[in-house]
Amino acid sequence: xxxxxxxxxxxxxxxDGEKAVSGEGGTLKELFDDLESxxxxxxxxxxxxxxxxxxxxxxxxxxxxxxxxxxxxxxxxGDSVTxxxxxxxxxxxxxxxxxx
Length: 100
Fold this sequence. Notes:
The chain is built from 3 helices and 7 strands, in the order ββααβββββα. A hairpin with a 2-residue loop joins strand 5 and strand 6. It is α+β, with helices and mostly antiparallel strands. It starts with a strand and ends with a helix.
């Protein structure tokens, strides 16, 4: 079963610079286990305590897996998984200007 996994720039050091890699697994967890076997260290950046890290977004065919079954989400041959780091920001100088 071949599944395309799109890798964000920040994690490409684990995939030798590849933007996309192929993986296998019947669930997202199994896919991450498979990726770890070929790209050591990547799983720790995605999973913590058996769940997706808070600041990592994973999409299965454009659906956020947090609204499916999370790391237990079932996969099928030909699926596409996209990993995206969450973007967070704080208040800019404009927001703080009124508090002085």
